[in-house]
Amino acid sequence: MQFRRFFSLTAGSTLLLTLLAGCAGSASSGGRDLSAVQIKEYQGERLSDLGDFHENSIKGPQQVDIGAYRLKVTGLVEKQLAYTYAEALSKHQSYTKPVTLDCVEGWSVKILWEGLLVSDIINPAGILPEANTIIFHAHDGYTTSLPLAYIRDKNIMLAYKINGVELPPERGFPFQLVAEDKWGYKWIKWVTEIELSDDPNYKGYWERAGYSNDADLDKPFFDR
Prior knowledge:
Strands 6-5-14-9-10 form a 5-stranded mixed β-sheet. It is mainly beta. It has a single domain, classed as Alpha-Beta Complex (Sulfite Oxidase, Chain A, domain 2), CATH 3.90.420.10. The chain has helices at 85-91, 118-122, 148-153; strands spanning 28-29, 32-33, 41-42, 45-46, 71-75, 81-83, 94-102, 108-117, 133-138, 143-147, 157-162, 165-166, 176-178, 191-197. It is built from 3 helices and 14 strands. Helices cover 8% and strands 29% of the residues. A hairpin with a 4-residue loop joins strand 9 and strand 10. It is globular and about 45 Å long.
């Protein structure tokens, strides 16, 4: 891993898009042909086209009013935070990661993600010692959770660009979680809130339906 203004981290294992967010998308947005402007190759490796995604979100693509949008940091913190989209981007360093994503539906894409480290976003809030879990909330009401240690150790980020273009609405604008080494339903889109919690057993949308809360790629994703 190279830490500089932009770093590259090639995933050692394949990754999955979330069932909420993920396994979803289109090569165009608002009439704009993203295939014409996206990056198609990175460090000698061919990238998948943005049109290779399929739509599978729980309420369809969301349209977020970026003027009213706030990325909130809540829960077990010394002070709650609320970033505008512009503040989130201007106050935190950006990183890039080429990552291959494997959808539970049986298809895969290699995408270049650009975003902000979740740790950088939450640290200024002052995380209380009892916090061990992060619950992510989405614009459409979807939630999922991940261990705080995983977020820190893996340098997990919130992406705002894919293949060099701003996330289209169907891909999760303004932010999608890049939940490396986890099954796709952890890749939450349209993130609005990052909640620090002391409940490692919190279950989100698909987890309550029987999906594994660990969501490790080397294990079955369905518990029942």
